[in-house]
Amino acid sequence: MNRLLVAFLAAALSLVAQAQAPQPPEIAARNYLLIDVTARQVLAERDADTAQDPAALTKLMTAYVVFSALREKKLNLEQTLPVSKRAWDERKGEPSLMFLDTTMTPKVDELLRGMIIQSGNDASVALAEGVAGTVENFVQLMNRQALAWGLKNTEFKNVTGTAEPGHKSSARDLSVIATRIIRDFPEYYGYYSQRDYTYNKIRQDNRNLLLRRDPTVDGMQTGYGEAAGYGLIASSQRDFPNGKRRLLSVVMGTASKEARASESQKLLNWGYTAFDAVKVFDADKVISTVPVWKGEQREAKLGAGDAVYVTVAKGDAGKLQTQVERTDPLVAPLTKGQRVGTIKVMTTAGAPVAEVPLVVLDAVPQSGLMGRAWDSLRLWIK
Fold first, then answer.
1. What does it do (predicted)?
2. Which of 1, 66, 240, 370 has the smallest set of CB atoms within 10 Å of its CB?
């Protein structure tokens, strides 16, 4: 299912919620993107595929690779790491610091808080060296992950977001990284909601101003550079009668810390008020039961696997229809989660809203030799 999710995210983030979607407010940012994470739909965007300097928004991918190393048990949260001279050298003219020095041996948990809450470049370097031995090796892991996700406008040259020729990403690519953190590592996502952190008696506030202004905002990352301007990726989850909805906004190239916060808030509020989320199918709901050839069972149960939400303009919830397209014939063995078609969600007028993979809900093993031979003959006659 993980590979399906990657492909689905990449495709779904390029879809607009509806042919005639509500018009977004005027946003004072060079680039922006608003997505409904729950429905996996784009609600609004401007120049979201333009490659540019991401500044410290880079640290989202740095964190993702560290979280992956934790899951793979290459290190653990209580493990201590040395602070190299290279990490210490980040102090030179750089305000984004955890204020480490080479006499310290911070824990991985402390370094993560220093990188995520304090945006510490020194913490980022220490983590990269702890995971991969060198920063250069770690950057290769970052780019390898970006390539695996199909991020065409992203290339990393460092782990901090320091301006460097060729170091680039786009609003859409950054939204994929942020969304993957939320979906793949819920156990670590809580770092992004912490409002402040004190290390070595130095207290620093999280630079995401929305954490103090909007109780539904629980992350994620700020960035600033002379060329990049001020950027913010903000994630918010609110409760609605049909369940929780999570929206994620990306603004890049705003004029100030205040502007990136206010423009992000404007996008989030508009997304929640201008659209309704509709649950089309429950998780693991059987959408169709179809014949299977050469299988131990004669039929397969098909569905979407996960719950399916779509987002439509407010008032249009009753104007939806679904269409199932599948690859026939279905021949065993079939594995759970195997994609065998597409579920299309459309308006009654035929405008596309979303496409969801149609998958096998329960595995169907291959039948014995005689059963396979008999079905082969039947398929040949058919």
1. Removes C-terminal D-alanyl residues from sugar-peptide cell wall precursors.
2. 370
